[in-house]
Each structure stands twice: as C-alpha cells, then as structure tokens.
Amino acid sequence: MKYNDFKTAIESKYKKSLQMIMYEICIVKKVNAVEGSKKLGIAKEVFVYWRHHYRFEERQRLFDRAIEDLKDKRSLFTDEIIN
Q1: pLDDT mean over 57-62
Q2: Nearest-CA neighbor of 27 among 45, 54, 7?
C-alpha cells in the first residue's frame, strides 16, 4: 500500500481529515510514534512521515514558534521606527 491508500483508509475510518487525526494524536494526546502507529494500525514509518509532513514534531513546532515570535518582534520594531 502507498501513503495515499493508508490516508484514505484512515480518513474513512475516523470520518476526519488526516491532519485533524494527527493533530489529536500528536499534539493533544502527545503520543509517540510507536503508540500512534499502533492506534492507527499503520507502520511506524508511515506515522513518522505524516507527523513530519504536518509539522507536528516537537522540534518543528518549536522552530515554527520561534519564527512567529521573530515576525512579531519585527513588526513591533517597525511600528516603533514609524512612530
């Protein structure tokens, strides 16, 4: 089976988009790759691929938050310069 086949099977089983399913498992429940793959009934490699694809890994989320913080600070500095 290919990733897309797994995706359609899981989405039809849970009646949600794959991104929402992965969000609940990775962010809300904070399940690791082994437990998450068992819960969905897929290979661990597929779970890890999806987690990386949707940027739900802890270090990816940390990086994304840091970038957002920098963007916010940049807008504050530009506001100060204008005023």
Answers
A1: 91
A2: 54
Tell me how far apart the alpha carbons of residues 60 and 11 are, in angstroms, rounded to a whole number.
24
CB-CB contact of 51 with 40 (8 Å): no
Report d(CA 81, CA 61) in Å as an integer: 30
Instruction: Give the HSE-up count for residue 19: Cα atoms under 13 Å, Cβ half-sphere.
Output: 3
Domain boundaries, the chain: 3-82
Q: How much is the pLDDT for 3?
A: 87
Token duo for residue 57: 């890994």
| pTM of the complete model | 0.78
Contact (CB, 8 A) for 43 and 37: yes
